[in-house]
């Protein structure tokens, strides 16, 4: 009498345990699969049925027959690895529908026999989490760009102001001359204030990771850059010409301003000492891009230095003032906005920077 009773009790516990397992699989909101040691699909949760387009008819099929539904090519190898090692596996995967999941494959161990009799696979959708992380990564890059830009871009207006102040202190001319210098100095102060305001304008909306695009006029941005570099333009007698076949683009104003300022500043700094500095700024439509070209007749760049110039703190000439950040800033800004930058140069003849800008909606 005792033995059958114990057996009945054990069977009841097994049935109860199985019912609990069935209840769990029926009510969980997480996609889960139960695959036995023979690689047969034994159970799956309703979310797994919906997400992987499974049906009750798939129960009892080899996992290889339904793996195309799961859209993850190495899942069979991963299951076999866990069954063999009896160790769980966790990895982030991207399925063919371009969503990201944290996949956990846990060994289903029969304790009495100390063997793995299958696996339970859990999929947690982490697409939104990764999008947030990527957003913060972009925001961090933007903060870095702002820091580099502020430290680099305000030097031009400050130098301009210093030059005007020196002229003002040394000038013993008429009141009209003094007023003209004061007016130029006032414009330089306004330009510096606007530059700092634009570069440091990171508000709450930036945490939405939306790009602050607006209609930007290339002509206005070039005028702003020339004003900021007025003393250098005057000192070098640089001749700046513009040919704007595309006059506007929908992008971040502060980024376009900084790109033009840096490229124009470089063209002036790296002029050839034996000839008049000539700089052409052009815009044209180039497929899906607007191509902004800054062409100079300066000293040029050596062939093996054409890619190095975009690295941080790279300075090709020690006799020219600079921090080696300008082109690094430009490249990051252009690429962050979905564009690209190229350089063509002949040593002793000049350089052309081609910036492919993609307008944003």
Primary descriptors:
Beta-Lactamase, five-stranded antiparallel beta sheet, 361 residues, Heat Shock Protein 90, 12 strands, 2 domains, elongated, alpha+beta, five-stranded mixed beta sheet
Compact overview of the structure:
This protein has 361 residues and is α+β, with helices and mostly antiparallel strands.
Q: Can you describe this structure?
A:
It is built from 11 helices and 12 strands. It is α+β, with helices and mostly antiparallel strands and 361 residues long. The protein has 2 domains: 113 residues, PAS domain (Beta-Lactamase, 2-Layer Sandwich); 228 residues, Heat Shock Protein 90 (2-Layer Sandwich). Strand 11 and strand 12 form a beta hairpin. About 4% of the residues have low confidence.
Secondary-structure topology with pairs:
Blueprint (H helix, E strand, L loop, with lengths): L1 H26 L4 E5 L4 E4 L1 H6 L11 H8 L4 H11 L3 E6 L5 E11 L4 E11 L1 H27 L1 H16 L4 H25 L14 E4 H11 L1 H7 L2 E6 L3 E4 L1 H17 L8 E9 L2 E8 L29 H11 L3 E7 L3 E8 L4
Parallel strand pairs: 7-9
Antiparallel strand pairs: 1-2, 1-5, 3-4, 4-5, 6-8, 9-10, 10-12, 11-12
Helix pairs in contact: 5-11, 6-7, 8-10, 10-11
């Amino acid at each position: 009498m005792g033995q059958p009773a114990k057996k009945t009790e054990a069977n009841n516990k097994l049935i109860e345990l199985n019912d609990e397992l069935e209840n769990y699989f029926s009510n969980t909101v997480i996609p889960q699969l139960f695959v036995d040691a023979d690689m047969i699909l034994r159970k799956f949760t309703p979310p797994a049925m919906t997400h992987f387009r499974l049906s009750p008819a798939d129960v009892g099929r080899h996992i290889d027959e339904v793996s195309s539904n799961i859209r993850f090519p190495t899942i069979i190898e991963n299951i076999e690895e866990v069954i063999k090692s009896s160790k769980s596996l966790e990895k982030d995967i991207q399925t063919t529908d371009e969503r990201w999941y944290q996949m956990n494959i846990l060994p289903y161990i029969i304790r009495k026999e100390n063997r793995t009799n299958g696996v339970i696979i859990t999929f947690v959708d982490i697409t939104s989490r990764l999008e947030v992380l990527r957003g913060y990564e972009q925001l961090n890059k933007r903060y870095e760009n702002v820091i580099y830009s502020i430290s680099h871009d305000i030097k031009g207006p400050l130098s301009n102001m210093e030059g005007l102040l020196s002229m003002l202190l040394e000038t013993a001319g008429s009141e009209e001359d003094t007023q003209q210098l004061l007016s130029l100095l006032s414009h330089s102060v306004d330009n510096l204030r606007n530059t700092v305001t634009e570069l440091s304008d990171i508000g709450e909306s930036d945490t939405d990771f939306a790009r602050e695009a607006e209609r930007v006029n290339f002509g206005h941005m070039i005028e702003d850059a020339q004003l900021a570099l007025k003393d250098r333009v005057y000192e070098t007698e640089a001749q700046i010409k513009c040919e704007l076949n595309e006059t506007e683009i929908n992008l971040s104003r502060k980024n376009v301003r900084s790109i033009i300022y840096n490229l124009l500043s470089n063209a002036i700094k790296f002029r050839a000492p034996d000839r008049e500095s000539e700089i052409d700024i052009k815009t044209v439509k180039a497929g899906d891009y607007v191509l902004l070209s800054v062409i100079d007749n300066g000293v040029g760049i050596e062939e093996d230095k054409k890619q190095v110039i975009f690295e941080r703190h790279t300075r090709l000439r020690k006799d020219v003032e600079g921090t080696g950040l300008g082109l690094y800033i430009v490249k990051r800004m252009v690429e962050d906005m979905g564009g690209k930058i190229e350089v063509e140069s002949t040593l002793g003849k000049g350089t052309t920077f081609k910036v492919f800008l993609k307008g944003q909606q």
